[in-house]
Amino acid sequence: MRILVVEDDKDLNRQLTAALSQAGYAVDHAFDGEEGWFLGDTEPYDAVVLDLGLPKKDGLSVLKEWRKAERSMPVLILTARDRWSDKVEGIDAGADDYVAKPFHMEEVLARLRALLRRSAGRASDELVCGPVKLDTRSGAVTVEDVPVKLTSHEYRLLAYMMLHAGRVISRSEIIEHLYDQDFDRDSNTIEVFVGRLRKKLGFDIIETLRGLGYRVPAAGETLPAKSAKSAKSDS
User: Fold this and answer.
1) How many Å apart are CA 87 and CA 79, to the nearest integer?
2) Which of 79, 82, 106, 197 has a CA that sits 20 to 30 A from residue 151's CA?
3) Residue 122 has pLDDT above 70, yes or no
4) 108 lies in some domain
5) pTM of this prediction?
6) Percent of the chain at pLDDT above 90?
């Protein structure tokens, strides 16, 4: 998943970016309201962490403009304001949740996980597809209860597809939602990651739909008959 952090405090911005990256997210960041508004208006983020007290354009104005433009990504607002009315104003402007400063980083991560689950229609931290289980809270991936070690890019890809199980996901959507602006956005790179995932998982839960993209079966669907152990990658 791809997250935007808009926070003018450079130290806090770096801390948030580092914590989110370590948790397996692709992260872009901005230090003022104008840059934050532009990125949120032009890039398809899965969620935004937005400070209200921003220079150039305040966070509340940024949020209102996004919602007016029908930008629907979940937004978690950060506020140092103590008055309950300020928090209500943020929620009424279109925020999905808020965290008051100072905060524990674990709380921000937990609230983001909840927002991402709700936006995808999920209720649990654990995603399951056949023998494959992925815990979005711990970042652990197992196949038939055996731990599987994935790189950060492989984990992001698997988590995104399992979170959106049952839906066809194009290569362009994967690139837009899983990698930050500095990543080499070559579609061939996605094919390489899909091939690696198939080999590491041992079960081919990732379907290739020629000309359309990839798909992970929804809960209750029969898994593809082929496994990565016995079939060549058709990515």
Assistant:
1) 8
2) 106
3) yes
4) yes
5) 0.76
6) 51
